[in-house]
Amino acid sequence: MTLSWLAPTLLLPAGAAVASGISRRVAETAHPPVGERLTLGERTVHVVDRAGTDAQATPLVFVHGASGNARDPMLAFADAFPRHRLVFFDRPGHGWSSRHGAADAAPTTQAGVVTEILDALGIDRAIVVGHSWGGSVAAAFGVHHSDRAAGLVFLAPASHPWPGAVIDILYRLSAAPVVGTLFDSLVVPVVGRLLIDKSIAGVFAPDPAPANYRRAIGADLVLRPTEWRANAEDVYRLHAHVTALSPRYSEITAPTLIVSGTHDPIVRADIHAEGLAADIAGSRLVWLDDIGHMPHHAARDRVIEEIERLIGEIEAGG
User: Does the bond joining 82 to the residue before it have cis omega, within 30 degrees of 0?
Assistant: First the structure.
């Protein structure tokens, strides 16, 4: 009788593990790869490669933000820039791309993955478009691979160290060894499904999210334990990485566009967007009035117009 509590205690984590496995299989069945899974050395990267009508036009590579995958920029840009080759990919550990531990959380590592994709696709130089966390990858690409950067576009970027280095406690917990693994496996897939719609609304605020956004981008994929952990590592370690990287932004010479909403509740534009504008000589900062953290959706036409302007300046410059 003294051990009567043991059975239900053991059943709780077992039930959570079963629910987690079901959640993962449902998400993966509903949102399979939509492109090609390239083998780059020991790494597998899920890439969507869309041809343009002009083989001479400079290709664009899109880098998604945290808690996302290639489907997010595809939703905004897949039918834009018809002259240009468009490349979308899942960052390491996200969507259908493999992850090689916490070292993959470094923007410099992920910028290196961009160059490997370019090599695999036979692309010499490209315009790299980074949103939010992906902005740090675009910046690292501009610093470390300047010869491959035809231009850079930052959309609501996260690029500089911020005061206090405040990180959501869930990301700290998820990135922790042992306890984090258990939390990611047993709690996130179950509780996350209940909170994901509220999270999407918060990321888009004050703008509404596009209809059916959650399904359109396969947002539930991030609730898989390994992807959630990769996402947590990315977010948790970003402050240290941009602290080391940002002093080199003045070395960036690629034509640069920075777009930020005036009502972004996720990243402080006065630190990140304005910081990039101050650091990168000749860059152009565009403010979108009353727009939040997702300008490529909330102000899609204006963002496309500004990118087209950058493309024109690059082409005019030879």
Answer: no
Question: Is residue 171 included in any domain, yes or no?
Answer: no
pLDDT at 280: 98
Q: Bridge partners of 129?
A: 62, 153
Total of domains in the chain: 1
Name the residue with tokens 């035809």.
150
| One-letter amino acid of 249 | Y
> Which among 104, 94, 128, 102 has a CA at the least distance from the CA of 41?
104
**Residue 180 pLDDT:** 55
Q: Do 228 and 188 touch, CB atoms closer than 8 A?
A: yes
Q: Is there a domain that residue 211 lies in?
A: no
Q: How far is CA 166 from CA 103, 162, 170, 236, 237, in A?
A: 21, 8, 12, 9, 11
What CA–CA distance (Å, rounded) separates 70 from 292?
A: 20
Residue 222 lies in a domain: no
CA dist 263 and 265 (Å) reads: 6
- Residue 299's domain comprises 35-163+240-316
Interhelix angle for 225-245 vs 188-204, to 10°? Answer: 50
The answer for 123, left when phi > 0, alpha when psi is -120 to 50, beta otherwise, is beta
- Mean pLDDT for the chain? 89
Q: Is residue 40 part of a domain?
A: yes
DSSP 208: P
Helix or strand or coil: residue 4? coil
197-227 pLDDT per residue, tens: 999 999 999 999 999 999 999 999 998 988 9
Low-confidence ranges of the chain (pLDDT < 50): 1-12, 14-19, 166, 178
- CATH code, 246: 3.40.50.1820
Which residue, among 128, 98, 115, 138, has the nearest Cα to 242 in the 3D structure?
138
Calpha distance 226→219 (Å, rounded): 14
